[in-house]
Amino acid sequence: MARPSDSAPRKHKVTVVGSGNWGTTVAKLVAENTQEHPDIFEEDVQMWVYEENVTIPSDSPHHAAAGDQPRKLTEVINTYHENVKYLPKIPLPPNVVANPSLVDAVKDSSILIFNLPHEFIGNVCKQIKGHILPYARGISCIKGVTVTEDKVELICDYIGETLGIYCGALSGANIANEIANELWCETTIAYNTPPCDQRGKDGENGANGDHYRDSRGQISKTQLTPVPQEYPPLEHDVLYKLFNRPYFTVSMVSDVVGVSLAGALKNIVALACGFIEGHGWNMTAKTAVMRRGMLETIQFCQEFFPETVKEMTFWESAGWSDMIVSCTSARNWRYSKMAVERGVSLQEIERTELNGQKLQGISTTKEVMSFLKARGVQDKYPLFKAVEGIVDGTFEVKDIPVLFRHQ
Ligand SMILES: NC(=O)c1ccc[n+]([C@@H]2O[C@H](COP(=O)([O-])OP(=O)(O)OC[C@H]3O[C@@H](n4cnc5c(N)ncnc54)[C@H](O)[C@@H]3O)[C@@H](O)[C@H]2O)c1
Ligand SMILES: O=P(O)(O)OC[C@H](O)CO
Question: pTM for this one?
Fold first, then answer.
C-alpha cells in the first residue's frame, strides 16, 4: 500500500569528486543536465578540486586581468569558469562550483561522481567516510583497479564497501577534450539499482531490504540505507538524464564488472600499442596487439569474475570502442610512443610532458601483474607481462612478435 509522504519532494544534489581533464569535462556535461532537469536535480554541481596554485597562461583571454601572479585553481575556476590547467579553453557552465574542501563538497549530496586518477581514491574515501549522506549513491568514472595482497577489486566496489553505499561505473571510448568540445561519442553506464531503491508500482521502495548483490554476484556485507521516497527514484532513468547529452550518448547496462575491467585493462594494451608505434611498426601491428589485449581482458574477467561478466559488454562503448580509441589517440598510447621514440622511461615522460595529468596504464600494469603473480598465473597473460617488462626495462619492444608465435 502506498505510504503517505510526510515531507516535501527533494532534488538530488550532485558532486563530482575530481577535476582533472575528465573530471572537469564530466562536471560540465552534468551541470548542463542539472540545468535542463530542475525538477530532478539541484542546479549547482559541486566539483572537488585538489587545490594548487596556477598561473594563467599568457595566451589565455583571462591573462590580462589575472596577470602573472599564481592564484588558487578553485578561485580561477569560479571567477573565469574555466579550468585553465586541466581543461583549458573550455567554458564551464556557471553552476559548476569548484570547492577545495572535500568534506564540504560531498556534504548533502545524494549523487557522488568519482572522477580522479585511481591511485588517489583510497585517500579520498578515507577523508569522506562518515561525512556523506548514508543513502548517497556513487558512479565511478575511474579507469583502474585496486589490488590488495592477492585480491583484485573494482574501484566502484572499493568505493561502495569503504563508504557503505552502492556505486556503479561509467566507462567508454571517451577522450575528454573531444567531449568537452561537444564532439559526439558514446559511453556505457553500468548500474544495478539496489533492491531497496527500486520503487514498487505503489510508490514504495522495494521489499528486499538492506543488502544487494555485489559485482561477484554475492550478497554484499554492506547494509544499505534506501534513498528516501522524497527523492526522484535513483534508477536508470535518472542517471540517464544526468549524463546523456546530445553529444554524449549513454547506454545503460548492468554488467559492472565488464564495464569496469575493460576500462582499466585497455590502458595496459594502449601502452603496448604506443610502444609498437614508437618502435616503427604501424596500424596492422597495433591491431594484432589490440586483438591479443582484448583476449587477455576477457580471459581476466572470466577467470576472476565468472559469475557476473557478460561477453556482450565487450561490444559496448566500454569494450571494443574504448580499446580502439585508447590504442590510437589517447594519452597512454601517445606518451608511451613518445617514450620509445625518445628512449626515456614512461615515468620520465609523465613527469615532464603531462603538466600534472596521469597515465593510468603505468600503475594499472603494476597492480594487475602483482595480482597475477600472487596467483601464479602471470604466464597466461603474455601481453600484460610483456608490457610490465617494457616499463621495467626487462623486456624489449622488438620482441613483442615472439608472443604471437604459434608453438
Ligand atoms: N582524460 C580522459 O580523456 C579520460 C577519459 C575517460 C576516463 N578517464 C579516466 O578518468 C580518471 C580521471 O582522470 P583525469 O583525466 O580527469 O585526470 P588527469 O590525469 O587529467 O588529472 C590528474 C588529477 O589528479 C589530481 N591530483 C593530483 N594529485 C592528487 C592527490 N594527491 N589527490 C587527489 N587528486 C590529485 C589533479 O589535481 C588532477 O585533477 C582516470 O581514471 C582516467 O583514466 C580519463
Ligand atoms: O587518455 P587516456 O589514455 O587516459 O584514455 C582516455 C580514455 O580512457 C579513452 O577512452
Answer: 0.96
